[in-house]
Design a protein that fits this description.
Elements: H1 7-13, H2 34-45, H3 51-67, H4 75-86, H5 93-110, H6 114-139, H7 149-160, H8 162-169, H9 177-190, H10 192-218, E1 224-226, E2 231-238, E3 249-254, E4 259-264, H11 270-286, E5 294-298, E6 302-306, H12 319-334, E7 340-345, H13 353-367, E8 374-379, H14 382-391, E9 395-400, E10 402-405, E11 408-411, E12 416-417, H15 425-431, H16 434-439
Parallel strand pairs: 1-5, 4-8, 4-9, 6-7, 7-8
Antiparallel strand pairs: 2-3, 2-5, 9-12, 10-11
């Protein structure tokens, strides 16, 4: 079963996008191999829903956070080797010998570049395998019980074979036709499947190296997944992974308290905190490191958010109607008795305060009856929280405070229990002298 989500959620949390500004994916740049990059993209697009598989992947990455072993080879070198190995025909060596001799002949009589390219591919493969052999022997030290240990040992055994050992020991600067034939026959005929498996392993090791580096350099934690339990998700020291020096907070949603209701003034940090929470949930289901000191969670079926819902001019949707349709979509998913994480930031902000109050209270009260799901809901209409607390016993109330330095608001971005009493909108408007500007008094 796949982890359910949609484009709106991925956009709200800015998860995907290699070149997208401040995307979570962009944090994990630096893969060396093309195959590693494709593998990383696949992991980002397909979070896991099995606790055992998540914890297995966590164990795989954690070792590389602690090992801090640089990946052997450059992107240019690995690109050449990957193309060379993936182009193996697997046919009888006589077939490759014929092509090799033809390329050499064409080079001699017509300066055809194919033989020289072939030489470079073979030489690069020898050079990479030599460095890979040293890397694997260092990597396997202390690897007992690691999910990749068996495959690493198989790779070492392959490169220890006399046929490989002789070639790796005899690294020639210039390869003659006999040298080319010997190496090409080994790489692309005799051991082409084993070498393909080796390159697949190195693509995985490439991803592991990048993820381990990101976790180490940013001091991210590795989450602990469970299939069942009372705590749906508990995070200590949670912060946004893409904001340097971001303030951290502790958050907990349990089966008994499955609604986390967040209040606070505009600019107090509600949206950033909610995005931090959603990103942590998503990354945890990938088995990736999380921007927190610790995290434990019950595996969920999926996650939906409503944070930055755009209007749709082409469809004739106002911002408010787009919000309503978004809430309806999530309501349908919630009604199907799934374990979902749902994040609603400032529900119904596209309508008047009275309707927003009534609608937010009605939706939150209805959601409260869906105990299988975990909800994070924010609003700056504090009266909603006060009424919700009277009707429901499964709500955790917290707020992000505003501290006034004279007439200047300051935001701590640190959660406090309860419901905020802050109402500083007019103070900010007065500080900016908007009325005076309109009157021409500034």
């Amino acid at each position: 079963m796949s982890f359910e989500t949609d484009k709106q959620t991925l956009d709200d949390l800015n998860i995907l996008g290699k070149y997208k500004n401040n995307s979570v994916y962009s944090l994990f740049g630096g893969t060396v191999t093309r195959g590693g990059e494709h593998l990383l993209e696949g992991m980002f697009q397909n979070p896991l829903t099995d606790a055992e598989e998540i914890n297995k992947r966590v164990a795989m990455f954690r070792y590389f956070k602690e090992k801090d072993l640089p990946f052997p080879g450059t992107p240019e070198e690995c690109d050449v080797v990957e193309q060379y190995v993936s182009g193996a025909s697997g046919k009888h060596w006589i077939f490759n010998l014929g092509h090799l001799c033809q390329a050499k002949f064409l080079e001699t009589v017509g300066h055809d570049p194919r033989y020289k390219v072939w030489q470079e591919q073979v030489s690069s493969t020898v050079e990479f395998l030599s460095k890979a052999f040293d890397y694997l022997r260092e990597l396997v030290k202390g690897m007992g019980g690691h999910p990749l240990e068996e495959r690493v040992r198989q790779a070492i055994a392959l490169l220890e074979k006399p046929s490989f050992a002789k070639i790796l020991k005899d690294k020639k600067a210039s390869l003659g036709l006999q040298d080319m034939f010997t190496r090409d026959r080994l790489f692309r005929c005799v051991e082409h499947k084993a070498l393909g498996d080796l390159m697949t392993l190195f693509q995985e090791l490439d991803v592991c190296t990048v993820v381990g580096r990101v976790a180490r350099e940013n001091d991210f934690c590795f989450p602990v997944a469970s299939a069942t339990g009372e705590v749906s998700m508990r995070m200590e020291g949670l912060h946004h992974p893409c904001i340097p020096g971001a303030v951290s907070n502790n958050m907990e949603i349990t089966r008994e308290k499955n609604i986390f209701f967040l209040t606070g003034a505009n600019m107090a940090g509600k949206s950033t905190l909610m995005k931090s929470f959603g990103i942590a949930v998503y990354m945890a289901h990938m088995g990736f490191p999380v921007a927190a000191k610790s995290m434990e969670f019950i595996v969920q079926d999926g996650m939906y958010t409503s944070i930055n819902v755009p209007d749709n001019i082409n469809m004739g949707y106002s911002h408010f109607y787009a919000e309503v349709l978004r809430v309806k979509k999530v309501a349908i998913e919630v009604s199907r008795s799934k374990k979902l994480v749902v994040i609603f930031d400032e529900l119904f902000k596209g309508t008047n305060v009275k309707d927003a109050f009534d609608a937010t209270l009605a939706v939150a009260s209805a959601l409260a009856k869906r105990r299988a799901c975990s909800f994070l809901i924010s609003t700056h209409i504090i009266e909603v929280g006060q009424e919700l607390g009277k009707a429901c016993d499964n709500v955790t109330f917290a707020y992000l405070p505003t501290v006034m330095d004279g007439k200047v608001p300051r935001y701590t971005y640190r959660l406090q229990p309860g419901i905020t009493a802050d109402k500083h909108g007019m103070i900010i408007i007065n500080n900016e002298k908007i009325i005076e500007t309109i009157r021409g008094e500034v």
